[in-house]
């Protein structure tokens, strides 16, 4: 599918799951508004945007994030949030008949994310330098 063409051997870099879920919720609100206002074209466009976001983005990495957090000691709240998000995304994908190809590993360095804050207390953490892969 065009727009989803990136290597499946790579996956999650630092993500803000709250932002990702908030964006998806905005798409749901937009679709509900279109339905309520009988806006057929707007509904179609929003449904397509939801499907693309799930298939090309959120649906690809949420399982990898959930698996990674499950293996981390002391991350119970985040582990549960990721598991709940994974369940939500899986239900949405089933409802839309989508089968996102799961990504694995980490994404390559993204120059736009180069100034991310890295917690110095996180074991093994280090800032990623531009032009390198974490």
Explain how this protein is built.
- The protein is mostly helical.
- The protein has a domain at 17-106.
- Helices cover 53% and strands 0% of the residues.
- It contains 3 helices and no strands.
- The chain has helices at 17-36, 40-70, 76-95.
- Residues 1-14 and 109-113 have low confidence and may be disordered.
Fraction of helical residues: 40-55%
- Mean of all residue-level pLDDT scores: 76
Gross morphology is: elongated
Largest beta-sheet details: none
> How many helices does DSSP assign?
3
Order of helices and strands: HHH
- Terminal CA distance: 27 Å
Features:
single chain; 134 residues; 3 helices
What would a concise description of this structure say?
The protein has 134 residues and is mostly helical. It contains three helices and no strands.
Topology:
Layout: H1 17-36, H2 40-70, H3 76-95
Helix pairs in contact: 1-2, 2-3
């Amino acid at each position: 599918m065009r727009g989803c063409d990136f290597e499946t051997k790579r996956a999650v870099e630092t993500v803000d799951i709250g932002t990702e879920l908030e964006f998806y919720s905005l798409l749901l609100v937009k679709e509900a508004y279109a339905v309520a206002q009988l806006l057929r074209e707007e509904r179609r466009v929003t449904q397509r945007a939801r499907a693309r976001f799930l298939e090309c983005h959120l649906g690809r990495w949420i399982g990898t994030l959930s698996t990674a957090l499950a293996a981390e000691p002391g991350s119970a709240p985040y582990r549960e949030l990721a598991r709940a998000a994974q369940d939500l995304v899986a239900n949405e994908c089933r409802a839309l008949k989508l089968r996102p190809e799961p990504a694995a590993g980490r994404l390559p360095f993204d120059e736009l994310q180069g100034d991310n804050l890295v917690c110095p207390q996180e074991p093994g953490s280090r800032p990623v330098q531009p032009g390198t892969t974490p």
